[in-house]
Design a protein that fits this description.
Length: 128
């Protein structure tokens, strides 16, 4: 099993300046097994499109509960993004892509509620 460890949010992340002074960002790192792809999009697709059953179940519960207060379901977020011509990974629209970072996220339907996720930052051994 691959274990994640908590790391500092990279200061050069496109998300870092959006939340200065707020404790809204978390960062984790893993060591990729030998021979594993370090392609960010491939890693994102593995993480968000091949989720464990318990994650899919929790997402279903989240969607069911949040629908009672008008929050979009995960499926609706992805469908709305695809309808706007955005690339979707799992159910999250791809907002930006660079060599070192993918940012995915979407609005939930509540006027001020938006979620963004920095999916992956690739650094090989010897990098930070």
């Amino acid at each position: 099993m691959i274990k994640a460890r908590v790391v500092s949010v990279p200061s050069d992340s496109v998300l870092a300046p959006l939340y200065v002074g707020a404790d809204l960002l978390d960062a984790f790192a893993i060591h990729l097994p030998a021979g594993a792809s370090d392609n960010l999009e491939v890693l994102a697709r593995v993480a968000f499109e091949r989720q464990a059953g318990w994650i899919r179940a929790l997402t279903w519960v989240r969607d069911a509960v949040m629908a009672t207060v008008g929050v979009k379901s995960s499926r609706a977020i992805g469908a709305a993004a695809a309808a706007r011509g955005l690339q979707v990974i799992g159910y999250l629209p791809l907002l930006s892509k660079s060599a070192g970072e993918l940012v995915m996220g979407g609005t939930t339907g509540i006027s001020t509620s938006e979620s963004r996720s920095c999916c992956a930052r690739a650094r090989r051994a010897g990098g930070s």
